[in-house]
């Protein structure tokens, strides 16, 4: 019963404001909608969201890793792939298929 009442009440609250109120009251809080996270001052200061060009959806913001490593820094370089976008490369370069074998698979419909 208390969970249902709490859920009903929190649905009416603005995410960032509720987070601040809870933190001020000593209640650990940090979850809020992704659109709010895109404007979070700490995440913005850490360049957490990386804009990348997606081939079908245009520029989208992607989550960078939630931690930083000084000797092996990470950086997102490409947007999410399209379905099958790297099939030819994986078959040819990683699995050793010849171009003829790849073309045969393609012609057979096995890669659809």
In total, the number of strands is 2
Write the element-wise H/E pattern from the N-terminal end onward: HHHHEEHH
Structural class: alpha+beta
H/I helix tally: 6
Give the oligomeric state: single chain
What is the radius of gyration computed over CA atoms, rounded to a whole number of angstroms?
22 Å
What is the approximate shape?
elongated
Mean pLDDT: 90
The helix content is 40-55%
How many discrete structural domains?
A: 3
Beta-strand level of the residues, as a percent range?
A: 5-15%
Distance between the termini: 50 Å
Largest sheet: 2 strands, antiparallel
Parts with pLDDT < 50 across at least 5 consecutive residues: none
Side-by-side strand order of the widest sheet? 1-2
Describe this structure in words.
With 112 residues, the protein is of the alpha+beta class. The protein folds into three domains: 1-32, no CATH class; 33-74, no CATH class; 81-112, no CATH class. The chain has six helices and two strands. Strands 1-2 form a two-stranded antiparallel ribbon. A hairpin with a 3-residue loop joins strand 1 (49-54) and strand 2. The longest helix is centred in the N-terminal third of the chain and has 10 residues, at 2-11. It is elongated and about 65 Å long. The model has no long low-confidence stretch (mean pLDDT 90).
